[in-house]
Amino acid sequence: MSALLIGFTVSSAVAQDQTEKPAADAAPPAAQKIELKTTLDRVSYGYGLNEGRKLASGGIKLDPKLVARGLADAFEGADPALTREELNAAFQEFGKEIERQRAQAQIDADPELKAISDKNLAEGAAFLKKTSEKEGVVTLKSGLQYEVLKKGKGEKSPGPEDTVTTHYHGTLIDGTVFDSSVDRGEPASFPVGGVIAGWTEALQLMKTGDKWKLYVPASLAYGLRSVGGKIGPNSTLVFEVELLSIAEQDLGNNE
């Protein structure tokens, strides 16, 4: 499984209709007069102007005062207002929202894709309702469902910062295989916090040696996105996951 490590990227592919557009006859705000005496002054201003235009063209609305504060803190070596963990969490959340908006724009612009999305959503809901009635299936508040296939002998569960090694087999609700470390014959390692939300939640409940079957609603999988040619928008996914090990360097953080 490819980890979804979402960085802070800006793309002009974000739908233009996601930003509030000014009236056609609205005049732009008057620029405050500043003195740019040296080449360095002009380059400094130009850098900020160019970066701001890139953000604006991508439909990204940031607070310019806080952007300037962040730049100033970096240049002056001041203590950041946020920890690295807080920054990473913010960038990931923001990146996911941009991805969601981009995917929604693509669906809205393509009637055929929208029909597929609606069909997947309805079929997924019916599938999850049926599996929730199966004996041994647990439904969590998030909507994630799991079934214990094998109980391991491990005593530890990984945290979101840990790296784990697993074997897994992923299918659509009709049984179509879209990814499988089992079929490849090679386990996969990745950070717990770097995969789809359904996996992140489940892994933190599992212990080493456990093998679970996961029924993952679209909202905890890839949402509106189409992935890898087989996973369409709003697809509910099914995984068999075996937690083989938790990386030693991360185990120390949990003790």
Write a concise synopsis of the structure shown.
38% of the residues lie in helices and 17% in strands. With 255 residues, the chain is α+β, with helices and mostly antiparallel strands. The chain has 2 domains: 29-106, Orthogonal Bundle (Helix Hairpins), CATH 1.10.287; 112-254, Chitinase A, domain 3.
CATH architecture call of the largest domain: Roll
Query: How many beta-strand runs?
Result: 7
Cα shape: globular
The helix-strand sequence is HHHHEEEEHEHEEH
Give the radius of gyration. Answer: 23 Å
CATH-defined topology of the largest domain: Chitinase A, domain 3
Terminal Cα span: 28 Å
In percent terms, what proportion of residues is strand? 15-25%
Structural class comes to: alpha+beta
Q: What is the helix content?
A: 25-40%
**Biggest β-sheet, characterized?**
7 strands, antiparallel
